[in-house]
Structure formats: structure tokens, C-alpha cells
Amino acid sequence: MYQLKKLVQEMDDQDVRQGLLAFLYTVKEYKEEGKHSDSFMTEIVQLYKELTITPEETAKRRLVPNQNTDTVHIVFGESTAGSVRQVIKQLGLQESDGIICFPDLFSVGPIWKLHEPEGRLYRKEWIRNHLDPEYTDDNYAFTGELNPIEMVQQIPEQAQIVIWGGNSAHERIGSRYVQYLLREYRNQMIEINAVDICERKYNIADDQKYFHTGEIAIDKLIEVFLEIKRIPPLTNVERDNYEQEWMIYAGTKQVLRLWMDGEINTVEQNHLDEYLLHTVYKLQSRSNPEAFLKAARIIGEAIGYFDEYIGDSFFEYRLRSLIYEGKLEICGIPKAMRYYSVRIKL
Q1: Contact indicator for 57, 188 with CB cutoff of 8 Å
Q2: Any bridge partners for residue 293, and if so which?
Q3: Exposed / middle / buried, residue 187 (Cβ in 10 Å: 0-12, 13-18, 19+)
Q4: How many Å apart are CA 112 and CA 118, to the nearest integer?
Q5: Rounded Cα distance, 223 and 194, in Å
Q6: pLDDT digits over 12-62, tens only?
Q7: pLDDT tens for residues 67-104?
Q8: Which of 166, 170, 216, 318 could be stapled to 107 by a disulfide with Cβ–Cβ 3.0 to 4.6 Å?
Q9: Rounded to the nearest 10 degrees, what angle do helices 13-33 and 37-51 cross at?
Q10: Are 282 and 255 within 8 A, CB to CB?
Q11: Statement: the pTM of the whole predicted model exceeds 0.85
């Protein structure tokens, strides 16, 4: 089931539409032309085989680096990975370029000793207990892929490494983490800030700024991609400084990091609680001050007006915390944000 879910999430929009169209056409033929159930099932199974692929084909489609790869792009988050894959394919660079994706959201959750097994276990347990009870970092076994750290360990010596950073705690922390993992590699290494390049190149207004690379449209990201050859490689001094930065971050056990005034600020986990309470109050004021509001609506509103990329899971975690602390009343069961509503405690 995980493999099928991952397959659908990572399919190009066109592939999804074509697969759905093929399925609907098969159902239409069965319904309107009276095909036998045996032939219907045969066609459905064949469609399944065409849409699902082997681990080797999956690796090729996902542009997993191999020993012949010339450029390895390291990205943070599946949305950014999907965008960079599309750019590579549109530029016809599938044979020379590969991608390693770290799917975690590095702005939330502990990163204490994340470069060690002890730290990775600590992070996994915290996320399971507070954000996602089904979270795991070993899903790659289901698709036949290596995990990101294993992929990093197999980067060929001749490959140029391009780290996709940005103006967010998520991408900046991810960048420093990877640079620490690569500290003994002698490969030429480049860090590209796609957000800065795009905003400068297209003169983007302050109220239209991007939070992370994954938000950049493909046509603009292609132009950013072409800037790679103009970016000088990181010097040994820069790499040493970035490694030291990581060790500072990895020495803390706080679970929330925000991008403020051009740098990462590590803050307490309740830092956004007042903002969430204000969001609930604002939404109640617009309607019935005593009404319960869907948690999903509150979190959506909070994300929409918050100038940082931290995802919805952390906001929901803090919303639940406000309920436990008696600052919000609840109606429903907090199994997931769609199942319950809250209001300011009367």
C-alpha cells in the first residue's frame, strides 16, 4: 500500500490523468458494451501492471544517482524534488544528473545529533509521539531504494554536488546537515539559493516572496537551474564554517526553528501559541463568537498568513496542546484535524 501511495504521489500530472482516463475508459467499455467480468478484470490487471513499475524502473524515473552520474542534486522535501526532476527532464539531463531527496521538514522536530543513529532515533520517536504516529524513516525498503544517507554515501568521486538551499529554516538546516555528512568528500560542491536567484531575476515583490524552492514555478526554476554553472564552488573555509554551524544546531534539543531577519532562530515550541490563539479569535469574530471552528480551517488560516515554512502537522500539535492546557474548548475527537473543532474557552 505504501509503495502504491508513493507511486501516485510522485507521478507527473499528465501520467495521473492518462492512468485515470485509461481506467475510466475500461470501466465504460465494460458498462456500456457488456464485457464479461473475466475480460474486465484482465484489462484492469494489465492497466495495473502498466502503471506500476519495478524498483529498478522506479530508481530510473526518480533519477537516483549511479556511478556514471556527473551532477548530484541534493534537495529537501518531495515538492522540491518533484520540481527539480521536471526541470532535469525538460532540459534532457536524465543521463547526467541525479537527485537525492531528504523528505523531512527540518524546521520542526528535534535535530539533536541527527548525524548519528542515536539522534535519528530520537527525532523519529518525537515525531511519532507529537506529529505523526505512523512516521518512519525506513519506507525506502518497500521501493527497493536506499535511504538518503545511504545515497549520499554512494555519491561517485567525479560527481559535482549541488545543494539546493534557500531562505527558510527548513532548507538552511537541511543544507548544513548534508554539508556535515559530506565533510570528508572532495567532490566539487555548490550551494544554490533558488529563492534568492528567482526573486532577484524576476524582481518579485515582498508580498509575493517564496518560502522555499518547491514553491517556484517550473518555468522560473529552469532559469534558476541555468545559473548553476555561474556559481563558484564552496571553498574549504566555507565548508568548515558550515560544518561548525551544523554542530551548533545539532547540540540543541528544541523542536522549532524559524527564519528571522536573514538567519535561523531556535525558539521554544510554544512560540506560535499566541499566534494560533489570535487566529482562532479572529475567525470566531468574523462569524459567531461562540461557534466551534473546524481545526483544519484554523490551521489553514494560520499557515496562509505565516511567513515561514513549517507545515500543518506542527500547527496542529500546538492546537492540541492549547486544548490540553485548557485555553481552547474542543468538540469532536482529535484523531485528525478534520475530525474536531475548537473555540476560545468561554
Answers
A1: no
A2: 342
A3: middle
A4: 9
A5: 10
A6: 666 677 777 777 777 777 776 665 667 777 777 777 776 666 656 666 777
A7: 999 999 999 998 899 999 999 999 999 999 999 999 99
A8: 170
A9: 170
A10: no
A11: no
